[in-house]
Amino acid sequence: MQSPTAIASAGDPAQAASARPAAVVSSIELQRLDTVWRSLTTFCAYRVVIAVILSASAWGFQRYQVLSTASPLLAAWALALYFLAAVALLGTVYLRWPRPTLHLTAQVLIDVVGMTLLMHAAGGVKSGIGLLLLVTLAASGLVARGRIAYFHAAIAALAILLEQSWQFLALDALPADFLQTGLLAGSYFVISGLGYTLAKYASGAEQIAEARSVDLANLAQINELVIRDMQDGFVVVDENGLIRQHNPQSELLVAGLRFTGTRTLAEASPKLSALLEEWHSDPARIFPMMRDEKTQKDYQVRFVAIGEAAPAPTVIFIEDASRIRAQAQQMKLVALGRLTASIAHEIRNPLSSISHAAELLQEDSERSDRREEDRRLLSIIGDNTHRLDRMVEEVLYLNRRDRAHPEAIDAQAYLERFVHDFCANEKLAPGTVALSVSTAQRPMFDRSHLDQVLWNLVRNANHHGSGKPGSTLIRLQPGATPGALVLEVIDDGPGVSTEALPHLFEPFFTTDASGTGLGLYIAKELAEVNSARLECIIEGRPVSSGACFRLTLSGSQA
Length: 558
Known about the structure:
The chain is of the alpha+beta class. Helices cover 56% and strands 12% of the residues. A hairpin with a 6-residue loop joins strand 3 (290-291) and strand 4 (298-305).
């Protein structure tokens, strides 16, 4: 018989399910109800087999008296009716009618009546046919898993006691036969209690298993999410060097891991495979940073063995070196920010005094006939004080980068005004900065931050461009993903060198002797504050076609 599942002690699961809204009926309850019907189907099939066996014993082996009958006619009618009832029950169980509790009770009653008639025809309880009711009551206790099993035992016990009383009063049964009948009746209650107890323990174990399965499923899902979204690459290699699992971040760092199916580590990444072999020979070794030729990503590997076997399955952690550098740089910048914020105001006061004194000397030199060398020195003083003042201003502005108030900006009107103000301030001819807007979406950005970002990008583009009409292009267009916008600043200059590209957004890095090295860094910081991304695009662009800085930001409908 299949593993049975509980029928609700207060009634039937189908009835309880029908009394609730369909949305409340869980899949577990439906699965339990289906298991109950399968158990009842097996119980009915067992009854048909017993009816066939008893019929064969009564009529097929009469010479050997396997099933002795004092009343053959009654036995024939009892077996025929029992077989027909068993077939009828088997048909109704496929129709799933009536409800499981009533169906189980009907099965037990048919067994009790059928076996009692056969006992009567075979001469009473001493014929041994009553033992077949033990199987019926055991199955009833397992399937019902409720106190209804004791009710079924009481019906069976009452039936055999009445049968034995009839044998004693009407026929020639001995009083001593009541002992055997009483023991058999008691065994009915014992077997029903055992079935009920076992079913109760099975139900508790099933509930615990269901709870554990839910916990395990949640834990597996959490582990999958953690592995998928972790910032480091994650590769599991078995003892034969076969890759069993890896996360998307590892594919971004090592191009050889971008595959489907089953591959060995040596096939996917020979470099990682060689490092693993070296680690097996020297587990305490620390490996230096490495670079993948295809992804151009720097990474550092760390190996952790699973178990103590040799060789053992290994977990390879691939750490993004750029993230490590960014963390170290962030720590340095925090310290730098605290330092510069404390001394910036102290610098500006004497700096303004020096600048003012230089301007006075410059005016006095223009009225007198001082030497040209003195005028050149005064000009150097003025230029450098102006540069230092701009650097202090940018550092102070950097410390206020977290004060962002994004808003939906009318792109066409804003960019037209920006181009006009920029050309007027930088004394550029009209048309030097071209504008192209091909979307009606509004960029979501802090207006003052966007001014600062665009000012830095367009000033750099104008500085490295040819200065001809249209040499600098500001282009706004829809992004690759829905709701995203791409704002690009493109110049016609020599472009960004390969050596300078990794350090382009680092603070105080500049290729211009008069620059502060903070413009692009501040622009990138302000972009990140506004949930945007600033990057220098070189892929897919012709060599020496100028620099292209792309700002990817979110947009809203006009």
